[in-house]
Design brief:
The protein is α+β, with helices and mostly antiparallel strands. It has helices spanning 3-14, 23-30, 35-76, 81-96, 124-127, 136-144, 163-172, 204-266, 271-282, 334-374, 380-389, 416-440, 464-479, 498-517, 531-537, 543-561, 565-574, 579-586, 590-604, 611-631; strands spanning 100-107, 112-119, 130-132, 148-150, 176-184, 187-196, 285-289, 304-306, 309-316, 319-327, 398-405, 444-448, 451-457, 483-487, 524-526. The N and C termini lie far apart (162 Å).
Length: 633
């Protein structure tokens, strides 16, 4: 083998460029080789170039197969569709040696195609490009499902050029473009592109290679879509299972509370037992309240939300008995709402049963009160024995209260029958509410004179006026009607002095009539609340009490400080409420009178000179002076 032939083998071994294969021929010609030797070298050169081309092709095919194998490997472990598509575009760009590669997908809803992945792109306009079906090279590929290639895009008339597409391609600087379809069966879902910023020719092998990558990309997209659908179906199935489990748990809770409520009713359970059972089942805190129905009154028996609580009214026969309030469960399942409503119904039944028993007892209590009012000469020992059986408080001071519903007239269309029926129903409702109140306060109640009379013990620090106001509010709230209540002065040990009970009732009746005449319906008051009018109404004629309530603070101030406020008030009223004439009557400076009257105002309140207050103060001053004279002071 000649030296020149060895040179060609060395060039092949090191993979030299094509230009290097001319060097052995040039050297031989320069050294004066003959024509036969030169012809032999030229033949060896051509053979070496063919071998080199074959090696280059094999290396390229190996690189392509390696890239395709890597792409298939990516698809086998598909986790992120965008990452797989990006890898396909990057490999296509590298193997074809193009400056740019990109992939677009069809949008069936919008009827166009859009850029999904780009590699080597520098134009934001190009990366956000959308083109209609049939527009541009990509639109034509998507429409015909065939590869298209152009050496010079702007001089190629086969494509439908649009301003938007041409502007984006020009911004990117592209000239030569190859596009192959992404197909799933007969459906084209997008296009894979390779492009250069200079004119070039894409060979059939390059078209076939890009087509192979496009097939892999289509498989990746199809696989990702199937995975997404599978995940979505699994998620829907999990949600359905969660809903089934939740509903099953709710139904189990409803069944449990039904069984427990039934057992409570059968074994004589109470309202608190119902609340505790429902609290345990619903996972919150349920309480019964007599004044918490609120908007639930108008909900037709349904539980309603009140802030973070749920409220179910407890009612029967149009009367609201209270409410069940659930705390700690703002998002209550509809089935659990029905459970709370069922518990409210059971509570109303228990309350009605308790009320029926209480009303039977209260009839006995009413009989005892009737005997105190109508037959005060009954044996007092028997009266005490009957009171003990009823667990009535017989030691504390008591107040007699007269109560009546005061409703405005419904108008001239009311017939006597309607009015009579309504009054009868009002009396029954008032008696029912009053007997319940009397039982809770260890007192007595009875229906009398078109209204109700109550005998209730006074609590520590409580006055007859306080008890009257509380009773008016309590009965009015229960009945949702204005109830007016008049109270007597306190009666000590009424069972020891039954004759005083009847007198106290008459005083309470007079106080009730006075309230209605004074247009104070729906209020509660005792004689002490009515000023000198109360003094006239009271049987005991509590003069000292009236004086003390009216000017007692002024009298006490004089006694403590040795001042003359009472005498100054007498002179002030005697002088026609004139400070100038008052200072003459007292022989003091007018400033002294002003200072004393200012002190009186601070003791009696800013309205002490109003006509009504002034009249009461003058009467109290006269009664105080009369009391001092009688006492010899």
């Amino acid at each position: 083998m000649s030296h020149e032939h060895v040179s060609y083998l060395e060039l092949l071994a090191r993979g030299a460029a094509t230009e290097a294969y001319d060097r052995p021929v040039l050297l031989a010609r320069a050294s004066g080789a003959g024509p036969e030797a030169l012809a032999g070298l030229e033949q060896a050169k051509q053979l070496a170039l063919r071998v080199r081309a074959e090696l280059e092709g094999r290396r390229r095919r190996e690189a392509e197969l390696s890239a395709l194998f890597a792409t298939a490997h990516d698809l086998a472990g598909l986790r992120d569709l965008d990452a797989v598509l990006r890898a396909i575009v990057q490999r296509a760009r590298a193997l074809l040696g193009t400056e740019v590669a990109y992939l677009s997908l069809n949008d069936p809803a919008a009827g166009d195609t859009y850029m999904r992945v780009t590699e080597g792109s520098v134009s934001a306009r190009f990366q956000q490009l959308r083109l209609g079906m049939g527009e541009g090279l990509g639109g034509l590929v998507a429409q015909t499902a065939r590869p298209y290639v152009t050496d010079d895009y702007f001089d190629d008339a086969r494509f439908q050029h649009t301003r938007t597409i041409d502007t984006a391609v020009r911004d990117e600087g592209l000239v030569a473009i190859l596009g192959v379809p992404l197909s799933l069966g007969s459906q084209v879902i997008g296009v894979l592109f390779a492009a250069d910023r200079r004119a070039r020719v894409f060979g059939r092998e390059q078209v076939a290679l890009l087509g192979s990558f496009a097939a892999h990309a289509a498989v990746a997209i199809d696989t990702a879509n199937l995975l997404a659908e599978t995940r979505s179906a699994l998620a829907e199935l999990e949600r359905a299972n969660d809903i089934i489990r939740e509903h099953s748990a709710v139904i189990e809770r409803a069944s449990e509370v039904h069984d427990r409520l039934s057992e409570l009713v059968l074994h004589g359970g109470g309202v608190q037992d119902v609340a505790e059972a429902v609290s345990e089942v619903l996972g919150g805190t349920v309480e019964f309240t007599e004044e918490g129905a609120g908007t639930a009154r108008h909900a037709g028996g349904h539980a309603v939300r009140d802030g973070d609580d749920w409220v179910a009214a407890v009612s029967a026969g149009g009367e609201t008995l209270g409410a069940l309030v659930l705390h700690g469960q703002p998002d209550l399942d509809p089935v659990d709402q029905r459970t709370l409503e069922r518990a409210a119904l059971v509570t109303s039944l228990l309350l009605l049963a308790r009320r029926s028993a209480a009303e039977a007892e209260q009839r006995v209590r009413g009989d005892l009160l009737d005997d105190l009012l109508d037959a005060p000469d009954r044996d007092r020992g028997l009266l005490r024995e009957r009171a003990a059986r009823l667990r009535a408080d017989s030691e504390a001071p008591h107040v007699v209260l007269a109560a009546r519903i005061d409703r405005a007239s419904d108008g001239p269309a009311d017939t006597d029958t309607d009015a009579g029926g309504r009054e009868s129903a009002d009396r029954q409702r008032l008696w029912s509410a009053a007997t319940h109140l009397a039982a809770t306060r260890r007192g007595l109640a009875s229906a009398r004179d078109g209204g109700t009379v109550l005998l209730l013990p006074l609590g520590p620090g409580e006055s007859a006026a306080d008890l009257a106001r509380q009773t008016a509010r309590g009965l009015g709230g229960t009945l949702r009607e204005p109830v007016t209540v008049g109270a007597s002065a306190a009666v000590r040990a009424p069972l020891d002095h039954p004759d005083l009970v009847g007198l106290a009732y008459e005083e309470a009746r007079r106080c009730l009539d006075a309230l209605r005449l004074l247009h104070r319906s729906g209020q509660g008051a005792a004689a002490e609340d009515l000023g000198f009018l109360g003094l006239l109404l009271a049987d005991g004629r509590d003069i000292d009490g009236f004086v003390d309530r009216t000017v007692g603070q002024v009298v006490a101030y004089d006694r403590r400080r040795g001042t003359d406020l009472v005498r100054t008030l007498d002179a002030y009223f005697a002088s026609g409420m004139s400070p100038a004439r008052t200072k003459d009557a007292l022989h003091v400076h007018v400033n002294t009178v002003a200072q004393r009257l200012d002190r009186v105002g601070r003791l009696l309140g800013p309205d002490w000179q109003s006509p009504a207050r002034a009249l009461e103060i003058q009467l109290a001053l006269r009664l105080h002076a009369l009391s001092d004279a009688v006492a010899g002071r």
